[in-house]
Design a protein that fits this description.
With 309 residues, the chain is of the alpha/beta class. It is 40% helix and 14% strand. The chain is built from 13 helices and 12 strands. Strands 3-2-1-4-9 form a 5-stranded mixed beta sheet, with helices on both faces. The protein has a 3-stranded mixed beta sheet with strand order 5-12-11. The protein has a two-stranded parallel sheet with strand order 6-10. It is globular and about 60 Å long.
C-alpha cells in the first residue's frame, strides 16, 4: 500500500520517497553464536534492536540455556532451535552457523542481509548508521579472506593438509589423529577448490546463505573434508563462496574491527586504550569485548554512539 502511494507522487518526490521506503524495509537477520556471559549478550542484543532487525541466537548446547532465558523475552529475538555442542576449532561451529541460516531462511521474511556475530562482538556505529550502510550497499557479500599465496596461509595450511579429529570427542582421538598423519599421505583438496579464509565473521545475503547450504548438502565430500580440518569456521563458508558464481559479489571486508596484534590465534580483548581507534574505524562492529573485565569501553561506546545527538 505504501509503495503504491509512492508511485503516485511526482517523479522527483517519487525517487526520494522510494529510497526512504527501501531503507525502511532493509531487514537484517543477526545470527549470534554464544556460549557465555548472558548479561553481555543481552547488552549486545539491546544495541542491535531496530524495527527492521530480527535476532537469532545459537546457545552452545554444552551450557545451560536457563541463564539466557530473559533475552528471548525481548521482541524479535529467537533461539536457534537446533542447538549443538560446539568445540573450538571444530566443524561444529560451521554447523551451528548453518543451523542458524536454515532457521532464518525458513522464516521467509526476505532479509536483505544475514549478519554473523559472536557474543563477544559489539557495534561501534549507531544502529541507524548500520541499517543505512546496508541499504546503501545492497546485494553484497562482506567477508574477509586471504588466499593460498599469502603468508597467513603458509602458517595455517596444515589445517587442511593434515587430518584433524577436533569434531570427534571419543577417548584416544588425538592419538589416532597423530597416527593418521604419520602414515597417510597429505590430504587432497576436494573439487579442486581454491582455499580462501581468515575471519569467520561475515555479512551475507539470503541467496549466498542458501547457496552454501545447498552446496555442502549436494557435495558431501566437501563437508566431510572440512569436518576433518582444523579451524574450518575460518575457511569452509568462505571457500565455498569464493569458488562460486557469487564471487563477483564479494567485498573483501567483513566490516569488523579486530586487533590481532597480541596473538595471531586469538584477537586482543579491547579496552579504553583502543577507544580512539574504534571511533575512527570505518567498521560497523568490533571484537572482542569482555564486560566483566573491561566494562568501561562498552560504557564509552554506548555514551558516545547511542547518546550522540
Amino acid at each position: 500500500m505504501a509503495e503504491a502511494l509512492v508511485n503516485m507522487l511526482p517523479e522527483k518526490a517519487k525517487t526520494k520517497n522510494k529510497a526512504i521506503y527501501a531503507h525502511r524495509n532493509m531487514k537484517i537477520a543477526h545470527l549470534i553464536l554464544a556460549h557465555k556471559s548472558p548479561k553481555q549478550l543481552a547488552r549486545l542484543v539491546d544495541r542491535l534492536q531496530h524495527p527492521d532487525a530480527d535476532i537469532y541466537i545459537h546457545i552452545d548446547r554444552k551450557v545451560d540455556e536457563e541463564p539466557f532465558g530473559g533475552i528471548f523475552e525481548r521482541p524479535n529475538v529467537y533461539l536457534v532451535k537446533k542447538r549443538i555442542k560446539v568445540y573450538w576449532g571444530s566443524y561444529r561451529i560451521v554447523q551451528a552457523t548453518l543451523n542458524g541460516f536454515k532457521q532464518i531462511l525458513a522464516a521467509k521474511k526476505s532479509y536483505q542481509y544475514i549478519n554473523l556475530l559472536s557474543g563477544d562482538d559489539y557495534p561501534i556505529k549507531s544502529v541507524q548508521h548500520i541499517h543505512q550502510y546496508f541499504s546503501d550497499n545492497p546485494d553484497r557479500i562482506f567477508m574477509e579472506y586471504l588466499t593460498e599465496e599469502t603468508e597467513w596461509w603458509d602458517k595455517v595450511k596444515s589445517r587442511v593438509t593434515e587430518y584433524h579429529l577436533t569434531d570427534y570427542t571419543f577417548p584416544g582421538s588425538y592419538t589416532i589423529q597423530k597416527l593418521m598423519n604419520s602414515f597417510f599421505p597429505a590430504r587432497k583438496r576436494p573439487e579442486s577448490l581454491v582455499f580462501a579464509g581468515r575471519s569467520q565473521w561475515l555479512t551475507i545475503t539470503e541467496e549466498s546463505a542458501l547457496y552454501v547450504i545447498n552446496y555442502l548438502r549436494n557435495n558431501p565430500e566437501v563437508a566431510k573434508f572440512f569436518k576433518l580440518s582444523w579451524g574450518s569456521d575460518e575457511v569452509a563458508i568462505q571457500t565455498v563462496l569464493y569458488n562460486s558464481h557469487l564471487k563477483v559479489k564479494i567485498t573483501n571486508n567483513n566490516l569488523r574491527y579486530i586487533d590481532w596484534s597480541a596473538d595471531d590465534v586469538s584477537p586482543k580483548t579491547l579496552n579504553m586504550d583502543d577507544a580512539e581507534k574504534l571511533m575512527s574505524s570505518p567498521a560497523l562492529y568490533a571484537r572482542k569485548f569482555d564486560m566483566a573485565k573491561e566494562p568501561a569501553i562498552l560504557d564509552y561506546l554506548d555514551e558516545t554512539i547511542i547518546n550522540k545527538p
